[in-house]
Amino acid sequence: MFYWLMKYVVIGPVIKAVFRPWLVGRRNIPREGAAILASNHLSFSDSIFLPLMIDRRMAFLAKSDYFTGKGLKGWATRLFFTATGQLPIDRSGGKASEASLNTGLGVLGRGELLGIYPEGTRSPDGTLYRGRTGIARMALEARVPVIPVVMVDTGAVMPIGQRLPRVGRVGIIIGEPLDFSRFDGMEGDRYILRSVTDEIMVALQRLGEQRYEDVYASTVKDRLATARAAKAPASRH
């Protein structure tokens, strides 16, 4: 009830009035049954616009840090993320990754929609990067279709590091579902998982015509951070 109240009465109408989001491909979202919505990731706001613009309820797996803040700001952040259907996960790896997988499978097991960013993190520069294979494992274990989703201009409205959004129009393109039933029972094969993940990334690239690089976005972020750190001492002289 709280989710729908925030979506249609409190938050949703304001966001739609200010940003006038457009959507193409609504018919590709099934009216019922579980599915994974695999989206490119340009901005923090992606997790707001996508749930807002589709008719069914959906959940995103979000960093647990967003749910553990203290004080008034921490409370407001938890409230907002809960209202937008986000679920806390630990991204530290190992057993935490397995717990994240099980959280996602729980959503799909209830016949709901689950949003996943295959790149694993926001693109630092608008490029589409290599996908992580967790999405493939989840799709094969749950035996659900994967629907490619492209967010358009959300990075311009709310770039990385900016706290308040700029006013601008954003869009969403939803592609046709990808069926991986031919790989049923093969979720333990790492080569199959990589093949499925790459197929998803190809679908995203073709749908959104983003520039693609076959390297992880996290690797690029680390390189950029290292480059900034190397320049910092020189800038003081």
UniProtKB/TrEMBL annotation:
<dbReference type="GO" id="GO:0005886">
    <property type="term" value="C:plasma membrane"/>
</dbReference>
<feature type="domain" description="Phospholipid/glycerol acyltransferase">
    <location>
        <begin position="35"/>
        <end position="154"/>
    </location>
</feature>
<dbReference type="InterPro" id="IPR002123">
    <property type="entry name" value="Plipid/glycerol_acylTrfase"/>
</dbReference>
<dbReference type="Pfam" id="PF01553">
    <property type="entry name" value="Acyltransferase"/>
</dbReference>
<keyword id="KW-0808">Transferase</keyword>
<dbReference type="GO" id="GO:0006654">
    <property type="term" value="P:phosphatidic acid biosynthetic process"/>
</dbReference>
<protein>
    <recommendedName>
        <fullName>Phospholipid/glycerol acyltransferase domain-containing protein</fullName>
    </recommendedName>
</protein>
<dbReference type="GO" id="GO:0003841">
    <property type="term" value="F:1-acylglycerol-3-phosphate O-acyltransferase activity"/>
</dbReference>
<keyword id="KW-0012">Acyltransferase</keyword>
